[in-house]
């Protein structure tokens, strides 16, 4: 107290009671006391009489108080209420302190922002799934989570984790309604402008339903490509060449329109945009087209037609014979079925379906029909197919997963009408170069049997195994039947070079000496499906399998083509071909996820024919699809939405294409109505 008196202070507040330092002050030793030094007292009337002087006096008093108290000031107002403020990154009430608030504090990739327990990994164990005890999986230190931004909407506040777990749409709405003082608004204007522009770019390319913290390895190829496109929009480059490979993958027609406008914007600001695409709306939005073909594989590789789109569409005739141009000019169209399948063959009844954005949905899926699941991007289609349908079918039909448990819904019934389920996705048909269309379809087994039955093979005592590149005996052991040898480059990617022993033929010289119709086993594997179909036309066990590959539009593939070189669409069609060859058996349900990805009009027609053939056999086909040609040929449509993310997960419309096309509020119905009208005009 004596020191305070020497510094010029006259009064103190002890436990709220005013005491003068000139007086003798006695404190109880066993009691904790709250002592405040009175730095200055300023009356309201002083502000009225001379506001400038009063402000200066108040500033000096606060500065002195901060100095003496090491950063803490208590201000008592006219009503007697006290307000504690701090000049440090510390809460004056509970003592919670902050490091300096800077961008790296909010990054789990920086030691300044990462949770000290898990080092920013979010899990208790550098590959486990169990969340960290300290940060609960959010990966940031506690201080970073106690900095908030506030919105004017119901006084909502969010920390950085709340924001990044929001969808792009929700984040945009939050930043649009930030609660800021004029000073804060002036300081943050540029930053907020940049944030909103980037959010807008992502909305424009149709990924507004994604959350900002979505992991990159969970994105589809189309989503990843559109994120890269959004980042390019933000760069504002001019005079650049952009090359995109099917950017409309996974997009609904409603979202297509946004993407097309984005591509046009890139063009209009002075860039060149080259797009590999089958989507009709994108083609019609282009200025110039180059059509390659006329067929696929060995039948392609030529420019069938090129020119300004308007000129090609308005020309009197399609002189080039381009199949693409024929569809664009409406000279050719994909046929609709003459009638819809309406007979009741049973239903899969789902009640109370709930997973991700799907919340307590009830729906019936008719069986022995071609059923399409539609909706805008992020509406819940994949969740419905994989997490509800596929998972419950596995629990019913797959021995490895068989259980009485029902997943992600309250009731799942109707499986008594089915005997098995098959998911035909676009994952590779094999993980090694040894897997190929011939092995996957089973044709290679019969081809090896043929070679083993030849006179030369029997004379040498060779069986079918001699003609396999998967086992020792007839294969080249230098490359172990791969035809390629891996050369490790230490810190660089592994390089694969052609085997110099077999020259890439995969078999020993002696094995290749055995011929069938003057062709070695290597020659046969080098044939296209079309060539092999003709070559083995008198061997039904082989020809029938190859015909299914040809029927799904894969006649251009080589029999021995490595599975790792097949596109997702090609791998999916190889799977469909193997199912087509199966003998008629018990009823199955086939689940497909956007099988038209990468398909031309002609290939879409073939796919529709194949799917219809599967249904005609008494099976059920359920597909996720946006392609209007497929949708108009479906027997039944379940349209989800109405929007993506939190705005989706509901059944917007269901029924025949005609019923859905007349449903108000259905984005799919709007575009489907145009497609059905177009067909009627063509007829």
Automatic annotation (TrEMBL):
Compartments (UniProt record): Cytoplasm
Key word Zinc present: yes
GO biological process, one term: SOS response
GO molecular-function terms, A-Z: ATP binding; ATP hydrolysis activity; DNA binding; nuclease activity; zinc ion binding
Keyword field: ATP-binding, Cytoplasm, DNA damage, DNA excision, DNA repair, DNA-binding, Excision nuclease, Metal-binding, Nucleotide-binding, Repeat, SOS response, Zinc, Zinc-finger
PROSITE patterns (UniProt xref): ABC_TRANSPORTER_1, ABC_TRANSPORTER_2
Family under the similarity heading: Belongs to the ABC transporter superfamily. UvrA family.
Protein name: UvrABC system protein A
């Amino acid at each position: 107290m004596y020191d305070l008196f020497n510094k010029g202070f006259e009064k103190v507040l002890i436990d709220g009671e005013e005491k003068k330092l000139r007086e003798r002050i006695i404190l109880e030793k066993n009691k904790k006391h709250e002592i405040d030094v009175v730095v200055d007292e300023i009356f309201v009337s002083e502000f009225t009489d001379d506001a400038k002087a009063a402000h200066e006096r108040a500033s000096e008093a606060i500065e002195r108080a901060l100095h003496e108290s090491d950063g803490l000031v208590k201000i008592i107002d006219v009503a007697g209420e006290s307000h504690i403020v701090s000049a440090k990154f510390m809460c004056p009430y509970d003592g919670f302190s902050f490091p300096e608030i800077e961008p790296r504090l909010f990054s789990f990739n920086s030691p300044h922002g990462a949770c000290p327990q898990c080092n920013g990994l979010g899990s208790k164990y550098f590959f486990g799934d169990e969340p960290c005890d300290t940060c609960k999986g959010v990966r940031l230190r506690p201080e970073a989570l106690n900095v908030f931004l506030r919105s004017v909407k119901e006084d909502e506040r969010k920390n950085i984790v709340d924001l990044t777990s929001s969808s792009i749409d929700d984040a945009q709405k939050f930043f649009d309604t930030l609660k800021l003082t004029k000073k804060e608004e002036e300081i943050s204007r540029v930053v907020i402008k940049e944030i909103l522009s980037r959010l807008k770019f992502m909305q424009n390319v149709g990924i507004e339903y994604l959350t900002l913290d979505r992991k990159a390895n969970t994105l589809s190829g189309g989503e990843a490509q559109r994120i890269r496109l959004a980042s390019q929009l933000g760069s504002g480059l001019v005079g650049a060449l952009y090359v995109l490979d099917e950017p409309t993958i996974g997009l609904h027609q409603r979202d297509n329109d946004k993407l097309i406008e984005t591509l046009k914007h890139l063009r209009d600001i002075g860039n060149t945009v080259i797009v590999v695409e089958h989507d009709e709306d994108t083609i019609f939005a282009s200025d110039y087209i180059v059509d390659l073909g006329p067929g696929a594989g060995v039948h392609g590789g030529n420019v069938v037609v090129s020119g300004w789109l308007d000129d090609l569409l308005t020309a009197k005739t399609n002189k080039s014979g381009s199949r693409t141009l024929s569809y664009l000019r409406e000279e050719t169209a994909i046929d609709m079925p003459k009638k819809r399948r309406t007979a009741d063959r049973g239903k899969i009844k789902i009640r109370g379906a709930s997973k991700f954005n799907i919340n307590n949905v009830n729906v019936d899926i008719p069986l022995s029909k071609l059923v399409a699941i539609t909706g805008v991007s992020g509406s819940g289609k994949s969740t419905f197919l994989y997490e509800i349908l596929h998972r419950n079918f596995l629990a019913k039909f797959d021995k490895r997963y068989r259980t009485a448990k029902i997943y992600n819904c309250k009731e799942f019934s109707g499986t008594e009408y089915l005997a098995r389920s098959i998911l035909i996705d676009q994952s590779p048909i094999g993980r090694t170069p040894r897997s190929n269309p011939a092995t996957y379809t089973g044709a290679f087994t019969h081809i090896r049997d043929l070679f083993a039955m030849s006179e030369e093979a029997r004379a040498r005592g060779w069986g079918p195994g001699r003609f396999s590149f998967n086992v020792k005996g007839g294969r080249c052991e230098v490359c172990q039947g791969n035809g390629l040898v891996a050369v490790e480059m230490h810190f660089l990617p592994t390089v694969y070079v052609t085997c110099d022993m077999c020259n890439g033929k995969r078999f020993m010289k002696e094995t290749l000496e055995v011929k069938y119709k003057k062709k070695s086993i290597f020659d046969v594997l080098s044939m296209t499906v079309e060539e092999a179909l003709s070559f083995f036309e008198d061997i039904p066990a082989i020809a029938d399998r190859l015909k299914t590959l040809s029927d799904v539009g894969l006649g251009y593939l080589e029999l021995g083509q490595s599975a790792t070189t097949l596109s997702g669409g090609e791998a999916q069609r190889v799977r469909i071909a193997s199912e087509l060859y199966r003998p008629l058996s018990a009823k199955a349900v086939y689940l497909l996820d956007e099988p038209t990805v990468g398909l031309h009009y002609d290939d879409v027609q073939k796919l529709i024919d194949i799917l219809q053939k599967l249904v005609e056999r008494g099976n059920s086909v359920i597909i996720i699809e946006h392609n209007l040609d497929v949708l108009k040929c479906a027997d039944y449509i379940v349209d989800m939405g109405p929007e993506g993310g939190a705005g989706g997960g509901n059944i917007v419309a269901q029924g025949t294409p005609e019923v859905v096309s007349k449903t108000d509020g259905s984005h799919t119905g709007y575009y489907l109505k145009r497609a059905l009208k177009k067909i009627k005009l063509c007829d």
